[in-house]
Amino acid sequence: MEIVFVRHGQTDLNKTGRIQGSVFDHDLDESGRASAERAAANFDPAGFDVVFSSPLKRSLTTAEIFTKGQKEIKIDQRLTEINFGEWDGHFLSELGQKYPDAIDPWGKAAADYIKYAPSGESFAALDQRCGSFLDDMKKNYLTKKVLVFCHGTLIRMMFAHYFTHGDMKYFETMDNCALAKVSYLNGIPRVNYYNRILTFE
């Protein structure tokens, strides 16, 4: 099995440095759509057996641009971005100043963020959700090539689930419209690439 993950294109919240979880369902901004179209020009969806997407607009629009009408896009709720609760929509830099113990050394939300955003989704719950999706992929598409359009934190957790027991700090947030690939053979997952850029600004 091969799974290629694609992070969605840029939105206005991405551009301003605000946290964008599942609370806000913003679509791609003008720059994000243009970047997705340039990246898609260097991408061939024909080799994939099945395509999945988060239901959020930014992911689904990116999926439609990349697949060029050639593939059915299956919506899976488990691919929705993490719900950051009270933190959603706020500047990450400001949150880091206010709650330094909830920010990792690279400036991203750490597992302890949930102490200050109690309505948010825990990293453990996100790990379980990602694991459920990956288990289904192994069960139903073990010999297939799978294409998945989703979100930055979610992709980090997909790889963390496989390789670091759900600890996301070992994986950076990919760039918008970047790709990551993992292969699964004889029960062993392997990273083929991570944060691959198809186009440059």
From TrEMBL:
<protein>
    <submittedName>
        <fullName>Histidine phosphatase family protein</fullName>
    </submittedName>
</protein>
<dbReference type="Pfam" id="PF00300">
    <property type="entry name" value="His_Phos_1"/>
</dbReference>
<dbReference type="InterPro" id="IPR013078">
    <property type="entry name" value="His_Pase_superF_clade-1"/>
</dbReference>
<dbReference type="InterPro" id="IPR029033">
    <property type="entry name" value="His_PPase_superfam"/>
</dbReference>
<dbReference type="InterPro" id="IPR050275">
    <property type="entry name" value="PGM_Phosphatase"/>
</dbReference>
